[in-house]
Amino acid sequence: MLPTDVLNQVIATLQKGQRFFLISHVRPDGDAVGCLSGLARSLRKAGKTVELGLVDPPPERFAFLLEGETLHKPGERPLDHDAIIILDTGDLPRTGFAEALERPATVVINIDHHPSNTGFGDLNLLDVEASSTCEMIVFLLERARLPLDPEVAQGLYLGLCTDSRFFQNENLRPAAHHAAQRLLETGLDAGAIVGRLLSTRKLSEVRILGHALLSLQLEMDGRLAWVALSAADLARHGATMADVFACGLFGQLTGIDGVIAGVGFVEHTDGKIYCEFRSRRGFDVKEIAVGLGGGGHLAASGCSLARPLADVTAEVLQRVRERLGGFPH
Ligand SMILES: [Mn+2]
């Protein structure tokens, strides 16, 4: 449940304010793009002015949600809005707007479901049990009596689907389905959105997924699965970092029978290594990611390290092995 006092303050701010600046995180995912789109469309339908800030462009398959939008970069906009709303982002640096937001003249509203959220806003609307920030926005719009029609629902449904892995996450609470119900009740064509998500893969995504699955390693009696992709691996298949995120690799690591923890290491062209953690049965990978300067959820988290791939792989796997060793069979 959303904390009622904060919720009421957020609702009051949304209702009274006229100009809003909405921001989400670097390398935006379906939830980030979806809630930007959904909240922006709803506020505009209520007669408000909304501008969007996003450091990285949305992945191609989600880009239709932000078609025609100007996506502002840090420093481009005078921050003279009635509120700055930061969505689906665990900490300020992850927005890419940290410097621009150092001394904002306006109230910062932080709406998120990441357990690692640092509570950086003036108003922090946090619900760590929500499947997605989109789920939170559905209930927020309802409570604030803001417009919720098929156009608003589009992005919210997409984010709900992607962050809940199409309602397959462990510990998914009924509220996720309730939010889906509310979105479908608008008359939304949900089949079109799911179809778009499932049949728009790029060849480079499929190829890098194939490469990764063939090279993945199992250890600790099959409880730990990991895979390391070098920049050369990506180049060989014409794949980008975005393709690796989009291809579904990380979710597949914990889809293998017996696997409790999965780790994907991906070498970025700038030399940094991105580590993505996934888990099942309540094994906490967020603690590992946070310990390495990252963040995320209990069962899905990540961090970035600026060291050679082999070093990062060795050190991170050692940390996972230590924790997993003490985790019940
Ligand atoms: Mn999310």
Structural key phrases:
inorganic pyrophosphatase (n-terminal core), 6-stranded parallel beta sheet, 6-stranded mixed beta sheet, 12 strands, binds manganese (II) ion, DHHA1_dom, nucleic acid binding
Q: Explain this structure to me?
A:
The protein has twelve helices and twelve strands. It has 329 residues and is an alpha/beta fold. The protein folds into two domains: 4-198, inorganic pyrophosphatase (n-terminal core) (Alpha-Beta Complex); 203-325, Diaminopimelate Epimerase, Chain A, domain 1, CATH 3.10.310. The strands form two sheets. A six-stranded parallel β-sheet has the order 3-2-1-4-5-6, covered by helices on one side. Helix 2 (30-45) packs parallel to helix 3 (133-144). The longest helix has 17 residues, at 309-325. The model has no long low-confidence stretch (mean pLDDT 94). Bound molecules: manganese (II) ion (MN). The site of manganese (II) ion (MN) has 6 residues, from loops. Residues 252-324 form the DHHA1 domain.
Task: Kindly summarize this structure in a few lines.
The chain has helices spanning 4-16, 30-45, 133-144, 150-163, 174-184, 190-198, 203-215, 231-236, 241-246, 249-253, 286-291, 309-325; strands spanning 19-23, 49-53, 71-72, 83-87, 107-112, 123-126, 217-219, 224-229, 261-267, 273-279, 295-296, 300-305. The protein is an alpha/beta fold. The chain folds into two domains: 4-198, inorganic pyrophosphatase (n-terminal core) (Alpha-Beta Complex), CATH 3.90.1640.10; 203-325, Diaminopimelate Epimerase, Chain A, domain 1 (Roll), CATH 3.10.310.30.
